[in-house]
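Troubleshooting entry. The earlier prediction with PXG gave an output that would not parse, so I re-checked the input for stray whitespace and re-submitted. Clean input:
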Amino acid sequence: MSPIPNHLPTPELQALDAAHHIHPFTDAAALAARGARVIVRGEGVWLTDSEGRRILDGMAGLWCVNLGYGNERLVEAAARQMRELAFYNTFFQTTHPPAVALAAKLAEVAPAGLSHVFFANSGSEANDTNIRLVRHFWAAQGKPEKHVLIARKNAYHGSTMGGASLGGMAPMHAQGGLPIPGIHHIGQPHWYSEGGEMTPEEFGRMRARELEQAIGEIGADRVAAFIAEPVQGAGGVIIPPESYWPEVQAICDAHDILLIADEVVTGFGRTGEWWGSQRFGIRPDIVTTAKGLSSGYLPIGASLIAPHVAGVIAAAGEFNHGYTYSGHPVAAAVALETLAILEEERIVERVRAVTAPYLAQVWGRLADHPLVGAAETCGLMGVIALTPDKARRAAFAAEEGTVGLRCREQSFANDLVMRHVGDRMIIAPPLVIAEAEIDELAARARTTLDQVLDGLTRDGLMVAKG
Ligand code: PXG
C-alpha cells in the first residue's frame, strides 16, 4: 500500500489541482482543460499513475532519481535520522554529524581536489550561493569590480533570481525583470542547430573563443567567473564537441577567471564518470550539485569549492549567507546513503562499462528513423533531434516545439516519459536501469516516432523551414 493512499478519484484530484495549484512551467489553460497526470507510486524505473497505468520513467523524475524509486536503504536512512535529530542548523558555529560526514565524503569524491562544501537545498540555491561567493572572493582580495559572471545562452542554472539570470533561457528572462546586473551571455556549443557547414571541432573551438572575446570586451579585471554545464541538460542534451572544453579551460586559466561547472545534472554518474568534469577534462574551481546528490529523495544541493577559493573566503571573516536548511540533517543522511550505495553497488562503473554503451547502441539505432536527424547519448543521457529533412538537419516550418510537444504527448500515451525541448526529445533514465528496460524504452520511443510521423504526414507538417 502507498503510504499516502490515493483516495480521491482522478477527476476530483485533477479539478482540485487545477483550482489551487500553480504548477512550474505548465500552461494553466491546458492544465484546466485536460488535468494533470497524477503519479501515485514508483518502483525502480517504473511509475504508476492514479489510473493504475505503469509508466517507464525515462527522465528519472527530473534528472534526479538516479537510484530509482522505492529504495529501502534511502527510506531507512531518512527515518533513522528523523528519529535521532530531525533538524538542527549549521549557523553560528554549530553543526551535526550528518552535515560533517557529508561534507567530508563530498570532499573525498569531488573532482579536481575540491575540498570544501557549502550546502543549499537545490541547484538554484547553490548557484545563487556561487554568485555571491565568487563576487565576495574577488572583493575580499581588493577587486570588487571583478564581479561579472559569463554564462551561456540556452543554459539552465535554476529558477531563482540568480539561477535564472545565469541561465540563458529567453522566456525566463522575459518574466520578472531578468537577468540581474553583471551577467553576460555568450553562444552555446550547439553544433547540430548552429554549426552550419563547420565541422563540430571547428565549431566547438569557435564557441569557446567567444568566451575570450567576451573577456576582452568586458575586461579580465571585471570578470569574476564563467559558469557552464559540462553537457547542457534542460537546454536539450547538448553534448559539446570534444574541442570545446579544453579551449574554455585554457581561456579561464589564462585570464584568471574562476570556472564553475554546474553539475546538477551531470554529477554523480550521469555521464558514466562520477563527474562531467572528469568526462570532459575540466578542472573547475567550483562545482554546483543537487538532484542526484540525494537521488532526488530529499531536496539538497551543494557548492563544492576549491581550497584556494575556500581559503580566501575563510580569511575574509564571516560569509553573510546561508539557508535555514543548509546541510539539513535528514537530507544529508539520505545523501550520504546515496553516495554509499553508488560506491558499494559500483553503479557508476556499471553505467560506464555496461548500460551507457548499451544505450548508445540501442538509442543510436533510432537515427535510421525518417523523423530523426541525430540520435546521441552521453552516459545515460540521450537526445533525438526531430527533423523533416535529415540530410539538412532542417528545422520544421511549424513553430519550434510544435512537433516536440506532439511527440511528448504521444510518448506519454505510450506510457513512456520523454521530455521535449523545442523539437528535441530527451531522456535521462535512472542509473539503475536494466538492459531489458533500455530495450523497452527504445521500443516505446520508436513506436512513438512512427505514430508522430503518421500524424505529421496526415496534417501536412513534414515541411522544412525556409
Ligand atoms: N543547474 C542545472 C544544470 C539544472 O539542470 C538547476 C541548476 C536548478 O536546480 P533546482 O534544484 O533548483 O531545480 C538545474 C535544474 C527540465 C528541468 O525539465 C531541469 C531542471 C529543473 C527542472 C526541470 O529539464 N534542472
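This one parsed fine. Residues 96 and 456 are 58 Å apart (CA to CA).
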